[in-house]
Design brief:
Immunoglobulin-like; 2 domains; nine-stranded mixed sheet; Spore Coat Polysaccharide Biosynthesis Protein SpsA, Chain A; 365 residues; 11 helices; six-stranded mixed sheet
């Protein structure tokens, strides 16, 4: 029996999927068993299916759906066809770096209560920019969100808390337990999935299915591990359309996890409405550019170590992080160009968990 079933879902991204599959197959030497790589094509396009067949290596199994069934259902289809004890989910725009799968498998084998393990994930192949830690909306975090939009002090405190959590995740050199992991690059234990009700809830067409899964795994008593020895690259992009799709999936998540609860959410929504005229965040200057790169001056007292965050949100929840030294913090055009159609924000602080001061800029592509 193969040790790991790797599942990738394609939607008009054949070259990326082929590259991601190759990164999985390159992991095989460090695993206790064979790899079962399954690609499900949701494109519902004959030309795209033909491209996939041409680009995928013979070790990968391809299933072509007649219609776009959604990410959750496509993953479930592949999951049902395998009995491998571990299940890897990998986005088309993500890559596993050498040795990642062996490190993830090791911790799931070692810890009987481990349900999932995720790698330290970078935005760039040079491994200078770190993707943020994952979250899922809990009762506490939902209340925090409502408080933050009503009271500026709560918004600032929530921002500080998330930064401290991200700072810890970006600095640790040992595996640590975390509240959630991204479904875009995660290794799951089949026994834990079965105990938690299966892989994905198919009422989630796209987005929120991994948040629901993480909540179910935790409720079933399983631990989620971030493993910094395992590394991956996720070429994340963001646009208003992606934000719209995420928002469109929220009602299903709310209906499942919040509507049946005891808190009167509709009343809290009204009571904690955004405070009129509140301006908790100062106006930011445009980030200076040099040949398309964003180039930010670092105060002399921070040049021994600083953290630059990049986010679509003014409160930097969540944010991509860049740890560095020296007089300039630079974001290459090839990276910030992945963030389009909106105003994005930059925050520079000393490289400490609880900094007292920060500098900020904004940019738009």
């Amino acid at each position: 029996m193969p040790a790991v079933c790797a599942i990738l879902v394609n939607y008009f991204s054949a070259p990326l999927v082929a590259r991601a599959v190759q990164s999985v197959l390159a992991q095989g030497g460090g695993l206790p068993g064979a790899l079962d790589v399954r690609v499900v094509d949701n494109s519902a396009d004959a030309a795209e299916a033909a491209r996939l067949r041409q680009m995928l290596p013979p070790q990968a199994t391809l299933t072509v759906n007649e219609s776009n069934e959604g990410f959750a259902r496509a993953c479930n289809r592949a999951f049902a066809g395998s009995r491998a004890p571990f299940v890897l989910l990998l986005n088309p725009d993500a890559l596993l770096l050498p040795g990642a799968l062996a490190s993830l498998t090791e911790i799931l084998v070692r810890d009987a209560q481990a349900g999932a393990a995720g790698p330290r994930t970078y935005w760039d192949e040079g491994r200078a920019f770190l993707m943020p830690p994952s979250t899922f909306p809990s009762t506490a975090s939902r209340l925090g969100d409502l408080m933050a939009r009503h009271w500026p002090w709560a918004d600032r405190w929530r921002s500080r808390l998330f930064r401290a959590r991200a700072w810890r995740a970006w600095h640790t050199d040992q595996p640590v337990t975390v509240p959630a992991l991204s479904g875009g690059h995660v290794l799951l234990k089949r026994a834990a999935l079965e105990a938690a009700g299966g892989l994905f809830d198919e009422r989630f067409f796209l987005y929120w299915e991994d948040s629901d899964l993480m909540q179910r795994l935790r409720a079933a008593g399983y631990r989620l591990w971030l493993v910094p020895q395992a590394q991956a690259v996720h070429a994340y992009t963001h646009s208003p359309e992606k934000g719209r799709l995420i928002g469109a999936g929220w009602p299903a998540y709310f209906e499942k996890h919040f509507a049946p609860g005891w808190l009167p959410w509709s009343t809290l929504e009204r009571v904690l409405a955004p405070a009129p005229g509140a301006a908790p965040w100062p106006t930011l200057h445009e980030a200076p550019r040099d040949n398309g790169d964003l180039v930010l001056p670092v105060p002399s007292e921070w040049q021994g170590g600083w953290l630059l965050e990049i986010s679509p949100s003014r409160d930097f929840v969540p944010a991509i992080g860049h740890l560095g030294r020296g007089p300039v913090a630079r974001v290459p055009a090839a990276l910030h160009g992945r963030l389009t159609g909106a105003v994005y924000h930059l925050r520079l602080t000393p490289d400490t968990r609880w900094p007292r001061h920060s500098l900020g800029w904004q940019f738009q592509n």
